[in-house]
Amino acid sequence: MTTTVTVFGPLRSATGGKTISLEWSGGTVADAIAALVDAYPRAESHLYADDEIRPSVRVSVDGDRAGFADRVPEDASLMVVPAIQGGSEE
Question: Hey, what's the signal peptide range on this chain (predicted)?
Fold first, then answer.
């Protein structure tokens, strides 16, 4: 299945653009994130920590916030906001 994915922040440099077309076998939001990393390995550090999706990663399916276990319907579009690094502690 083909899904349009809009990425934000540092993911743009990892994917080479704001909007990409992702070819994957379908499934859940977590499966889509894994497929994104398979297609764009430089995105991994922004999306995963210790082999798990970072809790601060936010995903929307067709404009609605989605959990990692939610299914992605055919022809859906995704928006992925990566983990944002905070300021320094002093």
Answer: none
